[in-house]
Specification:
Helix content: 25-40%
Low-confidence stretches: 261-269
CATH class of the largest domain: Alpha Beta
Number of helices: 9
Largest sheet: 6 strands, mixed
CATH topology of the largest domain: Rossmann fold
CATH architecture of the largest domain: 3-Layer(aba) Sandwich
Shape: globular
CATH superfamily of the largest domain: P-loop containing nucleotide triphosphate hydrolases
Number of domains: 2
Strand order of the largest sheet: 6-7-8-3-9-10
Radius of gyration: 19 Å
Length: 269
């Protein structure tokens, strides 16, 4: 459940890319939003609208051309050395492709344990193993998977492993970039249920990227609708899905035959 504590705030984030023909595209064009502890802010829009670039800016995989991000009360984009290390452990990312996000030559236990090796190098061997087993159990897998390789698992199982890796540091914020779009719908629904359970269990905050309104309707407390690098509308899930204000949002809703939830069952806070 969200509270009034501000976890992250972005102001006037901008990112432009130079195209091969010499022209420029504004992938993110002056985006503002607050993110409060315990909520799920879902950014939805068509392919190419800038959603993934925005997510990459937040986790500092891309450098913005301008704007600011405050995270845990600190200048996140300006953080360096020890401050950067301290803040980075509190913000983890789940990527879209469960096949490309894991090194095929690396055992699952080593993959999940990498963040611990970086951020908690002083852990004793038994303490590290306990943390790995806790993380893998939290996503519904057995401890025996820690000694196996990614090719031995399905896409849904690999995404569970990726979620365990994101959670092993017990972060405050998880940035999820289309985490179910590469999965079969039934498997994707299971992953969404898992994310909801983990949020409740660990008090997580999610910044969730998706092109699918039915997907975000199941998890989001607030929705931001993105088009051509800008947020055209942002509001509570029930408001966006039942009383959209922007014509583009209405167009997106008209393209969805039926939402998986009914008005009144959306998250209200």
């Amino acid at each position: 459940m969200a509270n009034d504590s501000l976890l992250l705030e972005a102001r006037q984030l901008r990112k432009t890319f130079l195209l091969p023909d010499g022209s420029r595209i504004r992938a993110v064009d002056g985006v503002d939003f607050p993110l409060r502890e315990g909520e799920t802010l879902a950014v939805v829009g068509e392919s190419g609208c800038g959603k993934t670039t925005l997510a990459r800016l937040l986790v500092r995989l891309e450098t913005p051309d301008g704007g600011t991000v405050s995270f845990l009360g600190c200048n996140w984009l300006g953080a360096r050395r020890s401050q950067l290390r301290r803040l980075r452990r509190e913000m983890q990312m789940i990527f879209q492709d469960p096949y490309g996000s894991l090194d095929p030559r690396q055992r699952i236990g080593s993959a999940i344990g990498e963040p611990l090796a970086i951020h908690e190098p002083g852990l004793k061997r038994d303490e590290r193993r306990a943390r790995l087993e806790e993380a893998i159990a939290a996503v519904g897998l057995g401890r025996e998977v820690l000694d196996r390789f990614p090719h031995e698992f399905s896409g849904g199982q690999r995404q569970r492993v990726a979620i365990a890796r994101a959670l092993v540091l017990r972060p405050k914020l998880v940035v999820a970039d289309e985490p179910v779009s590469a999965l079969d719908p039934s498997i994707g629904a299971q992953i969404l249920d898992l994310l909801a359970q983990l949020q409740s269990r660990y008090g997580l905050t999610y910044f969730f990227i998706s092109h699918s309104l039915p997907v975000v309707a199941q998890l989001a407390t607030r929705i931001a609708v993105m088009r051509e690098g800008r947020f055209v509308e942002i509001g509570d899930t029930a408001q966006i899905l039942t009383h959209p204000a922007h014509p583009y949002t209405k167009t997106l809703l008209e393209a969805v035959p039926e939402l998986p939830v009914t008005p009144g069952s959306f998250h209200a806070d």
